[in-house]
Amino acid sequence: MSDALDIALRLLAVFAVFLVFPLVIGQTEHKVMAHMQGRLGPMYAGGFHGWAQLVADGVKFAQKEDIVPAGADRRIFQLAPAVALLPYLLVLVAIPIGPHNAVGQALDAGIFFVLAVMGVGVLGSLMAGWASANKFSLLGGLRTAAQLLAYELPMLLTAASVAMAAGTLSLPGIIEAFHWWWVPWQMVGGLVFFTAGLAELQRPPFDMPVADSEIIFGAYTEYTGLRFALFLLAEYAGIVVLCALTSVLFLGGWHGPFGADGLGWLWTLLKTVILAFGVIWLRVTYPRLREDQLQKLAWTVLIPLALAQIALTGVVKVVISS
């Protein structure tokens, strides 16, 4: 009975984080972009610092009519938002927050699990583009598929580098094996992993599949109301997952200057929030890449850097073991 209660509490905690953190990231993006770009609109709703902007957006989406195009594949069209969103809930189950088994479920091959499930989330966009019976949506879906193929490889290679350094595929095991001197040693791999993750989430400047100036809004053109809101929520949930995973793999997770045992969860949260702020900053700062530039970055820059990181990790491991 106690085991069942422990599992239920862990799942409830993961579900609460899944419902709250993406909304916090979305609200933060509204405010940060408003300050950086001098946009006053999001700062007025509700009075103090525009606190009600997120509520207003939610009410707006709930009031909009749910429309399915006449020529669409109805079941696939309706299922796509769930396919885009739910994988990130499953990933959060395996990401450790703090020491002493502070994780929804510790998996021996956790790094393989989270990367495989994150890849499934991108299929929601592909399903939406194919099922919408819209040529612009189909083009956005095809761009999503090409982007997934290009950027999944550097993510896997850099994650493999960390697993090689730690000698384990378990995410808690990787954090336990972490040493402070890993940060400069694995820095290139961390940058490649984070950049490839942004591309898989289709975040600016890697948002070619939703290029509004070219293909309206890509795979999401035909979506309205709450179904469209689910795609936005999936994007923000993906930011939470990517930043938390980057902090676990490359920044030591719960390790900090002091209080790793008692304040481990706080260090993980702080690193995740700082990385999420960086994601928002990138959206405001850099223009969208062209499709050819996006593919060139993956195949001629990120993948060679990821291979070089694996080679460096192998050399360092041999030197240390000898």
TrEMBL record:
UniProt cross-references to Pfam families, sorted A to Z: NADHdh (PF00146)
EC number: 7.1.1.-
Entry keywords, A to Z: Cell membrane, Membrane, NAD, Quinone, Translocase, Transmembrane, Transmembrane helix, Ubiquinone
GO biological process terms on file: aerobic respiration
GO cellular component entries: plasma membrane
Superkingdom, taxonomy of origin: Bacteria
Compartment(s): Cell membrane; Membrane
Cell membrane keyword on record: yes
InterPro entries named in the record: NADH_UbQ_OxRdtase_su1/FPO
Membrane topology category: Multi-pass membrane protein
Reactions catalysed according to its record: a quinone + NADH + 5 H(+)(in) = a quinol + NAD(+) + 4 H(+)(out)
GO MF term (any one): NADH dehydrogenase activity
Membrane-spanning segments: 7-26, 76-97, 109-132, 153-175, 181-199, 228-252, 264-285, 297-320
Oligomer status and interactors: NDH-1 is composed of 14 different subunits. Subunits NuoA, H, J, K, L, M, N constitute the membrane sector of the complex.
Family: Belongs to the complex I subunit 1 family.
Function according to Swiss-Prot or TrEMBL: NDH-1 shuttles electrons from NADH, via FMN and iron-sulfur (Fe-S) centers, to quinones in the respiratory chain. The immediate electron acceptor for the enzyme in this species is believed to be ubiquinone. Couples the redox reaction to proton translocation (for every two electrons transferred, four hydrogen ions are translocated across the cytoplasmic membrane), and thus conserves the redox energy in a proton gradient. This subunit may bind ubiquinone.
Protein name per the record: NADH-quinone oxidoreductase subunit H
